[in-house]
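Operator note (shift B, R.M.): manual run for Ig-like domain-containing protein requested after the automated queue skipped it. Running by hand, logging everything below so the morning shift can see what happened. Input copied straight from the record, untouched. If output looks odd, do not overwrite the archive copy; leave it for review.
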Amino acid sequence: MLICLFILVSSAQGSRAAETITPYSASQFADEGDSVTLSCSYTGSVRGLHWYRQYTGSPPQFLIMDSYGTVTEADPPVAGVLINHIKDNSSVDLKISSAAVTDSALYYCALQPTVKGNPLHAVQKAV
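Run finished. Output pasted below as returned.
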């Protein structure tokens, strides 16, 4: 079965206007069981790189973040999801191992927390 993953053209800006993040592609297709990598590039000196997933009719769900090399996962962690921050290329990947139909969603890459009331808001600000 074909799975469709969309990445929001996320121009979420950090605390400084020089910080931007942009997906490499707007959508990606995969077969069930495939490994999938979603990628975004960024500019500026960023503190945290976040990934979210949003199903139709639901709010965005925090998946994982990298802040100064420290990875913080959702609580409980989302199985099969990894983050790879490639500083040399100013990019961040979300890796989904063994994609399933339930992975069909809209994905956000962001520089700042985007979900209000997210307990990780405090983690980001504390760094």
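Quick read of the result: The radius of gyration is 14 Å. The helical segments are 120-126.
Leaving this for review. - R.M.
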